[in-house]
Amino acid sequence: MPLDIEVPEGFRAGWVALLGPPNAGKSTLLNALVGQKVAIVTSKPQTTRTQVTGILSREMEQLVFFDTPGLHNRGGKMNRALLQSAWQALSGADVVVLVLDMAFAASRTAAFMDEVRDLAEPLLESDRPLLLALNKVDIVKPKDALLPIMEELADAFPGASLYPISALRTEGLPPLLDGMIEHLPESPPLFPPDQVSTAPMRFMASELLREKLFDATRQEVPYSLAVDIEEWFEDPDTGRISISAVVYVARQAHKRIVIGKDGRVLKEAATKTRHELMDMLGRKVHLEVWVKVKENWPENPAMLRQLGLG
Ligand SMILES: Nc1nc2c(ncn2[C@@H]2O[C@H](COP(=O)(O)OP(=O)(O)OP(=O)(O)O)[C@@H](O)[C@H]2O)c(=O)[nH]1
Ligand SMILES: [Mg+2]
């Protein structure tokens, strides 16, 4: 629903879906476009698990971005739920931006093109305006390695515009933004101009803690982690926020890894999360974290629903 406020003639507002393979840099791009952190980023694939929104308000435009879980073809109940959430973003979008990892494309072109061709059909069928964000060009050497790949992409996505960018270094973003804006409908803003995300702080807190633990653990452990905020209390006198979080893991052995020797892994993750939250909220934060084993939760539909993943 557009907001009922006065705006200049010709104001545009709409929804932009950021889609792409795992680890392509979708969340990094979202944060770069919005100008602050609204989505968590790690070096591991399959970090994002839900549709995350970020809002960019400018003088004449408002862009509402959906960041989505990476598109891939691996099984499992949780993975299926993640894929569904990514493809859902397509139906509500005015423009679709397919984010691709050019460093991967340059080093393993055949594997890259196979992955990308699988995405072409549903994207072209959706009939939405499609832009290709060719990400991570900062680490492609030599630069002319990009040219043959760009030709193959232009063949695979007839009609799509190509934008070489570096989300990490915020390079090449203005032309990409202009490309998105071209396809937005004339509309008043959809959200108040000072709002950067639709996600509540509670969700942000759980995501930040998951990001720190995702980074600190290896192999299957990060994928068996989920964070639930059980309590959020704001002291009306002091303004201090007390948060109680539960980290769910799928096995007893994972619990030991997440806690770490003398509790060090968990303590460090909680401390980093607390500091980042205090910066975001401008308040004192007290954070208490528990780790619980929920056997095989990623295959448990009730648990997936409780965590907002089903
Ligand atoms: N060199 C370089 N690295 C980048 C760039 N953009 C993202 N990265 C890195 O790529 C990794 C994955 O970034 P994310 O933003 O989490 O990727 P994603 O597409 O959201 O991944 P999923 O949520 O797992 O699907 C991180 O280590 C980022 O720092 C870029 O432009 N250049
Ligand atoms: Mg992501």
Order of helices and strands: EHEEHEHHEHEHHEEHHEH
**Largest sheet descriptor:** 6 strands, mixed
Q: Which blocks of ≥5 consecutive residues have pLDDT under 50? A: none
| Annotation field: number of helices | 10
Q: Give me the CATH fold name of the largest domain.
A: Rossmann fold
Under the CATH scheme, the architecture of the largest domain is 3-Layer(aba) Sandwich
Say which CATH homologous superfamily of the largest domain is assigned.
P-loop containing nucleotide triphosphate hydrolases
What would you call the structural class?
alpha/beta
Amino- and carboxy-terminal Cα gap: 25 Å
Briefly, what CATH class of the largest domain?
Answer: Alpha Beta
- How many strands? 9
Subcellular location: Cytoplasm; Cell membrane
Region (G1): 20-27
Region (G4): 135-138
Function: An essential GTPase that binds both GDP and GTP, with rapid nucleotide exchange. Plays a role in 16S rRNA processing and 30S ribosomal subunit biogenesis and possibly also in cell cycle regulation and energy metabolism.
